[in-house]
Give the backbone structure.
Amino acid sequence: MLVSCPLVCPVEKLVTELKKHHVIPRLLACKPTKVISVLYPCDIDIKPGIMIVINETLKQPIIRFKADPEHFHTLMMVDLDVPPDNHTEWLIWMVGNIPGCDVAMGQTLVAYDNRRTIHGSNVHRIVFLAFKQYLELDFDETFVPEGEEKGRATFNCHNFARKYALGNPMAANFYLVEWLWRWTPTFLVSEHEFEHLNENE
């Protein structure tokens, strides 16, 4: 006799993991209703709460989420575990005025950059948030290019969302990243290269 196991709703799984790793209530007050699909090179598919190493996340991922094509959206990617406090985040990537879910057609406010020296513990929570905009926004923000830290440190998602009346995020996802540089199917960053990176910062 075959016994079928009930399928776990992706959103329920996401919410369970968000609570388990204290993203709720640290960053999110309300439960998201959709899951952001995140795909890194070499088919590294981000499931909520998955653990990966830092050098698998150096290139910008492909992002998809269910979205109204008639509305614009804002995407944020933040690190929750960069000191000095629990009230700010490290901003890795941000794109606004995304038509539907076509991130490539949005306005990049902060270029993707997840290559940096370790801050705090060697395992960090990296969170993706998608917000629905009610109109196309005129962002009063200075563009932050790749390699520049100014504008990334001490970012506050809540303050930004309040400034532009974004409300609560409609979709989310997250992973745990370990600051361990090693051979992977995607990249190799040797200890010598990592030390060189530290010397230049």
